[in-house]
Amino acid sequence: MSSNTNSSVRERLLDKIRSDKNLPTLGVTISKVIQITSSGEDSVSELAHFILSDVALTQKILHLSNTIAYRTPGGVSVTTISRAIFLLGFDTIKASAMATLLVDGFKDHKQAQSVRKELVQALCASVAAREIARRNRHPKSEEAAVAALFKNIGRILVAAFDHPLYDKILNLSSSDPVQTNEICNQLLGCSFERFGQSVLYDWKIPDSIIFALQPIYGHAKKTLQDSEWIKQVATFSEELAIVMVQSTPGEISIEQGCEQLVKRFGSALDFNATQLEEVFKNVDKEARQLAITLEVPLATLNHVANAPVVRDSDFCNEFMLPAFDAQQLQSVTRHPSGKPSNARDLLLAGVQDATQMLASKQLKLNDLVLLVLETLYGAMGFRFATACLRDLQQGKYTARISVGEKYIERQKEFQFPVETENSIFHVAMNNNVDLMIEDALNPKIQAILPGWHKRLLPDARSFIILPLVIENKPLGLFYADRCLPANEGVPPDETALIKTLKGQLMSAMMKR
């Protein structure tokens, strides 16, 4: 086949991928997640907001957070994204979010079996990279996990958009990667890796991730260069995943695969055969649960050799004291206002979340504020919720942390003076009284509803104000609203739980 023909095949396939309605959005979304850095408090809040903006992604992350592979001591279910991030770690949630986006972007393609097999391999590789990076405690561990997830993106794309070509390349290739590259160059015009790199460039994925897609042949040598280390981890992780996913009876055994991996990467990445066996077991356990959560079939994923017949996860799932079912909590009927009918259970789960968070020495006040907001927002069916705190220098109360619809724009404008305004917000704080307004059109409410609120939130029909007052000094308040009146009201048990949530935050604030 001529080079011009090769080039035309590649370009035709790239054009087909670029014209797909879903993939440009997928690329932008994944790029956005990668851009969220793990430094500082704002990144946790930013990642939580990003996940909460996608209902399907929120449900997948909560479901994954409650699987046995991630479940926390005590078996308390994770019901909020903010607690999931706090408990499982920023990197774990971020990698899981990207895996979810990647799988959801491809799982509905016609050639489901081949695409899904490649997706399972990508998931295994990403988990393996995190496992190795966790052992090495390398500062670039997060990038290694992302690179491993994308290591076979070229194969995924070709399988999804030109399955006959994908099949032909694999049928003509052996297990030798060099020969596979030669066949790819003949039929596609470039290797799978180069093809994947082209698309990732279109998606604006960082160069350090794209560089790691380059293959490594022969034995890896120990390196002090971050970029080279990421590439080594990504390559090792892909090959480990291939052993787990692609191996079939009569081909290479997992024991042989382990032996080869130790020879090639053991010295560079500091592991021996015994440690690699432990990595295999952990990857199999975690990747299997991740794939089940993301509805990727696992028929081709082999168990680790000599794995015990009874898994810890199976035993714990059977005999563990049941906690809240997070999925069941999230999928319920609602009142006409939008408030979930099981608001009490959701609030109680939030109180448990806050209790667990308060017990940690790593508690950050902003994380707890976000958790309380997210609980109120979800449990009560609000459309916008914010924590508004006093700014002594400006003499204003200003919104600091918010969730919900248009939270960025509304947070910027949600502010009012400390003095000179006799509004419903001042009434609540001056008297330290929690207010639940069922219908904002009530003339009594309209009379003390400030003009700035009417301009910013003209369609707010029901809302809640929870003042934050310590030793008779107003520090701010929680505010949350809906677009519909809340004729169902707030029964005493829900009120008690809302006050408990607020009390937990006040307790944390007083300790600072």
UniProtKB/TrEMBL annotation:
Protein's name according to its UniProt entry: HDOD domain-containing protein
Domain HDOD span(s) in chain numbering: 23-219
The species this protein was found in: Undibacterium amnicola
Domain of life: Bacteria
InterPro entries with a match to the protein in the record: GAF-like_dom_sf, HDOD, RNase_Y/CdgJ
PROSITE patterns, A to Z: HDOD (PS51833)
